[in-house]
Amino acid sequence: MGQIKACLFDLDGVIVDTAKYHYIAWRELAAELGFEFTEEDNERLKGVSRMTSLNILLEIGGVTLSDEDKLKLAEKKNENYRTFILKMQPDEILDGAEAFLKELKAKGIRIALGSASKNAMTILDRLQLTHLFEAIIDGTKVSEAKPDPEVFLKGAEALNVKPDECVVFEDAEAGVEAALAGNMKCIGIGSPDVLGKANMVIDGLHQMSFEKLMELN
């Protein structure tokens, strides 16, 4: 493996927790369709695309719709979600994330975002973190979903570093698999039971430091 030169970060669950806003937006949609959507149901939507999520939601409610109606509903859900994220404040950054990003920057480590979210730029702007990222690869720039490594490979390319010089920070199993498939090291954030394939698993970026990162070299 190459010397670590860059860190690539997923957004949701790593730098900020927008999952609650996704859940509220889906729950509101279900209520309009006349059924309840629980937090337990919501677990099935983690790391899944918007249209697949909608299909799962409709299946739970026993609702059948035309493709045209599905697109309208997916758009409505996204509009609901965006009303929440447009009110986000910098105090919603997850514990330790900003400090770790600043430490990496001070040490000359390149930083990119690798997120499937099409709203990534909006969220980073609201959190006032955009200036810390040299490259932002989001859902508007990729065609393949994780576990395909496309989002991280494009991040490495944008930073002009080799994949084996990158460390990815991910909270989802598909994201860990994407990083490893791209020949990158990966630090999982969350449960070792779920993220066991990662090179290291931590509870959050508050447990990270430049020194700890260098242990992966």
UniProtKB/TrEMBL annotation:
Family assignment from sequence similarity: Belongs to the HAD-like hydrolase superfamily. CbbY/CbbZ/Gph/YieH family.
Enzyme's top EC category: isomerase
Domain of life from the UniProt record: Bacteria
Protein name: Beta-phosphoglucomutase
Cofactor(s) it depends on: Mg(2+)
GO molecular function: beta-phosphoglucomutase activity
CDD domains, alphabetized: HAD_BPGM (cd02598)
Keywords carried by this UniProt record: Carbohydrate metabolism, Isomerase, Magnesium, Metal-binding, Phosphoprotein
EC number: 5.4.2.6
Gene that this sequence comes from: pgmB
Lineage summary: Bacteria, Pseudomonadati, Bacteroidota, Bacteroidia, Marinilabiliales
PANTHER family per record: 6-PHOSPHOGLUCONATE PHOSPHATASE (PTHR46193), HEXITOL PHOSPHATASE B (PTHR46193:SF18)
InterPro entries per record: B-phosphoglucomutase_hydrolase, Beta-PGM, Beta-PGM-like, HAD-like_sf, HAD-SF_hydro_IA, HAD_sf, PGP-like_dom2
Pfam families noted in UniProt: Hydrolase
Reaction equations catalysed: beta-D-glucose 1-phosphate = beta-D-glucose 6-phosphate
